[in-house]
Amino acid sequence: MPNLRSLVFEDQAGNTVVANARDNFITFECVKYGGYKTSPIHQAILFYQKLGFPSGRTFLDVGANIGTETVSAIRSGVFDRAIAIEPDAANLTISE
User: Fold this and answer.
1) Which of these, 30, 37, 9, 18, lies nearest to 91 by C-alpha position?
2) Mean pLDDT throughout 24-36?
3) Strand, coil or helix: what is 76?
4) CA distances from 76 to 9, 20, 66, 84, 93 (A)
5) Confidence (pTM)
6) 23, 30, 54, 86 — which has fewest CB within 10 A?
């Protein structure tokens, strides 16, 4: 078995994400199911867009892991900036 350091995948919303291969949640789901489901925040953003949610807001992602929700929020166009907080240093490491 190869010594994988990172995994690059595309979620259902078309976002490209790089995950640490040692991650026990997102990487595990990608390997087990062949991909990562669209972030639940994506459905919430679509709902708020239909209600006329004003754009130009800041998205705060506490416990961001690798930032899948942050990516969905920024790509939606509803938020023009984001703050992603992740306490696990392994999720901040970019592996070659």
Assistant:
1) 18
2) 73
3) helix
4) 19, 24, 18, 16, 26
5) 0.63
6) 54
Q: What angle do CA 74, 80, 83 make, to 5 degrees?
A: 70
**What would the pLDDT profile of 47-85 be if each residue is shown by its tens digit?**
878 888 777 889 999 988 878 888 888 888 888 899 999
Residues 6+ apart with CB under 8 A from 21: 4, 5, 6, 7, 27, 95
Say if CB 82 and CB 60 are below 8 A apart. Answer: yes
Do 12 and 66 touch, CB atoms closer than 8 A?
A: no
Which residues are CB-neighbours of 48 under 8 A, at least 6 positions away?
78
Query: What does DSSP assign to residue 90?
Result: G
Rounded CA separation 30/41 (Å): 18
Q: Which residue has the tokens 């994400």?
A: 17
**Residue matched to tokens 């390997």:** 31
Q: Provide mean pLDDT across the span 19-25.
A: 74
